[in-house]
Design goal:
Elements lengths: L3 E6 L10 H6 L3 E7 L3 H11 L3 E3 L2 H6 L5 E4 L6 H10 L4 E3 L7 H14 L3 E3 L7 H11 L6 E9 L16 H4 L3 H17 L2 E9 L10 E8 L4 E7 L6 E8 L2 E5 L8 E5 L2 E5 L9 H11 L9 H14 L33 E4 L4 E6 L7 E8 L13 E9 L1 E6 L4 E5 L4 E4 L5 E6 L4 E9 L10 H12 L3 H4 E4 L1
Parallel strand pairs: 1-2, 1-4, 2-3, 4-5, 5-6, 7-10
Antiparallel strand pairs: 7-11, 8-9, 9-10, 11-12, 12-13, 13-14, 15-16, 15-24, 16-17, 17-23, 18-21, 18-23, 19-20, 19-22
């Protein structure tokens, strides 16, 4: 492509200075369409930034034949959705950080883009900022000898909260966590870039001030694949502001702040102390965006990919206690041993997401992405409805009948049993089965799927599984999935 033409989904605050103008100013790049759910705000953004088109519908922007690549700049709760939509349209994706709500969603995004043969980039722009490039150069020049350990401290005063509306960055259902997820992700990703992937991590999260539902303090330790060790504490209700990363080696140390644009990069060795004062560019994402444009044009490589972004989410999940401390399993294997959602130990059945299949209804209570080896939903059928006979080779199912009466057909011989409220049905793996609603009352039962080999890597979320089923049955996914009930 001689010119990469961009569309932005979610033209909010982050795009005003950091990224939107950068898409316009990077060599070989143009911004031609923007989307926001509030059409008036999208139109205002387009007018102020000289963007030729705007829309209030994401699919319309993605389907715009003049949009070559899509930048997803919404909160994390919709990163996966829009990334999968863009991938399905065959368009490269640049997604804001943190990459998604959790590591499981990151894997689904990587898989979708890989299957569609489109690149996926993540807005960890510090990888390309000049002051952090300088840190990399000092390490490469062996300025501090062999790296031994890293310490990270980030402390901020408590957020000022007025009224009932909380900022989305401290609402776990939108942000994937609290300020740790929003801010520590920058530092952890930068360390991945400078020192290589983290091999193991463990931590503790707490809510000391109880000002909002998300964690307000996290502490932990981590070990890089190289053997370098690290420790960090992130506190968001502290007395004063602290922002310090220190990399210590056998012959010196390098210190810098992640967010202090005017703070120097400091090198301390036996020869003395040297400060490097390096300013940020006016649009901090422009250096990274330039590498993306160059890669799309076949003349360069972007250092921040879906794979590297997923690694950062994996480390954060481990520090938050959502993952096993050992991260040594290969990224490609997708072996997750975790509750992936932020602090989700209780799942309420009163507001599930509804999937209305032609043969029955599934109300999703707990997505397989939220657990290591299971998922939970409530099945509902009208009189006479029944799913086709089917089997799950790697899944054992347990049904608990809540309401109505039905007829269970099970096994190769297709034997039948009557089921009623209070009955528990066990369906072994690789066993044909179906339940038909009988009588005049709706049949409802709680269904628990237990995966023998862990969450399926090919279908790591319930939506992924539903898309496969729809493809097999000739149904449209968009006609099946509904909003929360």
């Amino acid at each position: 492509m001689s010119l990469i033409r961009w569309g932005i989904i979610g033209c909010g605050d982050v795009t005003e200075v950091k990224s939107g103008p950068a898409l316009q100013k990077a060599r070989g790049s143009a911004l031609i369409n923007v989307m926001r759910r509030n059409g008036d705000l999208a139109a205002d953004y387009a007018r102020r930034h000289g963007v030729p088109r705007w829309t209030d519908d994401a699919q319309t922007l993605i389907d715009d034949p003049e949009v070559d690549a899509v930048y997803v700049a919404t909160p994390p709760s919709t990163h996966k959705q829009y990334t999968l939509m863009a991938a399905a349209a065959g368009k490269p994706v640049y997604v804001e950080k943190p990459m998604a709500m959790n590591y499981g969603e990151c894997l689904a995004m990587v898989d979708a883009c890989r299957a569609a043969d489109v690149p996926l980039f993540v807005a960890y722009y510090r990888r390309s900022l000049p002051r952090f490039v300088k840190v990399g150069e000092l390490l490469a020049d062996d300025a501090i000898g062999e790296v031994r350990f890293v310490t990270v401290t980030l402390a901020q005063r408590a957020a000022s909260i007025t009224g009932d509306a909380l900022p989305w960055r401290i609402i776990p259902e939108i942000a994937g966590g609290g300020l740790f997820v929003d801010l520590a992700s920058h530092t952890l990703d930068l360390l991945d870039h400078l020192l290589g992937p983290i091999d193991t991590a463990q931590g503790m999260a707490g809510n000391q001030a109880e000002l909002y539902p998300a964690e307000d303090i996290v502490s932990g330790s981590f070990v890089f694949q190289s053997g370098v060790q690290g420790a960090g504490v992130w506190c968001f209700t502290a007395f004063d502001e602290q922002d310090r990363v220190e990399i210590s080696g056998s012959r010196g140390r390098i210190s810098f702040s992640t967010f202090g644009a005017n703070d120097p990069v400091r090198l301390v060795t036996a020869a003395g102390e040297t400060d490097f004062h390096i300013e940020h560019p006016p649009h901090v994402q422009q250096p990274l965006i330039q590498t993306i444009v160059d890669e799309l044009q076949g003349i360069g490589v972007c250092p921040s990919t879906g794979e590297s972004g997923a690694r950062t989410s994996r480390v954060m999940d481990a520090l938050l206690g959502r993952l096993s401390p050992s991260l040594t399993e290969s990224f490609a294997s997708h072996q997750l041993l975790t509750n992936q959602q932020p602090m989700n130990y209780i799942f309420n059945t009163s507001h599930p997401t509804r999937y209305r299949f032609p043969t029955h209804i599934n109300d999703l209570v707990m997505d397989r992405a939220d657990a290591a080896t299971s998922e939970v939903f409530i099945v509902e059928m009208a009189p006479g409805e029944a799913p086709p006979l089917h089997q799950h080779d790697d899944t054992e199912q347990v049904f608990y009948v809540l309401q109505g009466r039905g007829r269970l057909t099970i096994g190769a011989q297709q034997v039948t049993f009557a089921v009623a409220p209070g009955d528990v049905v066990r369906v072994p793996p690789a066993t044909l089965h179906s339940i038909e609603c009988q009588g005049d009352e709706t049949l409802r039962y709680l269904a628990v799927d237990c995966f023998l080999n862990g969450r399926p890597t090919a279908e790591p979320t319930w939506d992924d599984h539903v898309r496969v089923v729809c493809g097999q049955q000739g149904w449209r996914f968009e006609d099946v999935v509904e909003d929360q009930v």
